[in-house]
């Protein structure tokens, strides 16, 4: 008790004295401390909000950088960049300054003649652009306000999703020109099944939860490829898909026998999915998009190759963009050259020859293979809707024909 009373008097005394002094000086005095307090609080608030907005901006930058980095890494990994821009029709580039005069023509040509390259869709794919889902465009535009209409590519491996992305960036404009209307892949991952939508996030969306878009607000544009040529591209470039079970699957005959292409697809390293065969994989993966009740488009790889202008015009209009009047494919080459993937200048001619040749389409397939493809892939309405059906006898005859394609370069990227 004795120790506490002096402390009280020591602290209370000056306070009482100050109060008396203040009272003597009148009422104007208290304004100064209050003003100082308000000033200090105000400055702190301003500093705080400035710091917050700086932090926010840095976070947005980091998120953008991460997206760009991911895109570049993915493009580099797929090694299709230059090929896609060029194969889809960069106009014939100006002849590069030749180190030596051009070799004499014709006399030194290979003995057998190559088929002439045509820019028209080969007749065996029917006529005109084929797109499934154009009837869902109105619903999509009604459901999304103009400033948040967004699209993103999806597709199995080797179907040209990057081509679609580049062509859209070059040829489809949105009224506000913000560049916010496209993602480089659907947020659930462009090669993942549609059923992952909302449940899985592609790496560049995994960081900040609040930067994630509403997955249903994005129109998926799915690129589908003819199963007969797609299986052959899968032989050339398997990515995370494994189906080798026979020695023949390591040879030119791949993927024959098609019936034995049991497929393990690792969408995630720890989550393998299994399919009875490559055509089962094709049917199931594309079938999810086909069956979807939400707006989506399914377009053809073959139309991106031969009917790119009309295809892009339709996709662009569907998502609420405005197709540029002058269709352009040339910029893709220089843009992608930055990534160090400059292909030979005749890539497009090669692709047109490869995919335009019905003999190449059916070469090495047996009757059993072709019937299997028609049975399994053909069980999906998509197979006929996209013009991929064929007559087995005709296909065998054409595939056995002697005409062979010869290419100067390396086709592994197709
Ligand atoms: C799509 O719907 C059809 C008909 O209902 C069904 O048979 C098929 O299994 C479905 N495909 C997928 C991949 O869900
Ligand atoms: C084609 O290119 C790939 C990779 O670019 C290479 O691994 C392969 O050996 C090449 N093939 C030929 C026949 O040059």
From TrEMBL:
Keywords tagged on the record: Membrane, Transmembrane, Transmembrane helix
Domain of life of the organism encoding this protein: Eukaryota
Compositionally biased residues, Polar residues: 1-14
Transmembrane helix as UniProt keyword: yes
InterPro entries per record: P-loop_NTPase
rRNA-binding found in the keyword field: no
Ranges of biased composition (kind: Pro residues): 90-107
Transmembrane segments: 31-51
Region Disordered: start-end pairs: 1-28, 87-119
Identification of the protein by name: Sulfotransferase domain-containing protein
Organism whose genome encodes this protein: Pelagomonas calceolata
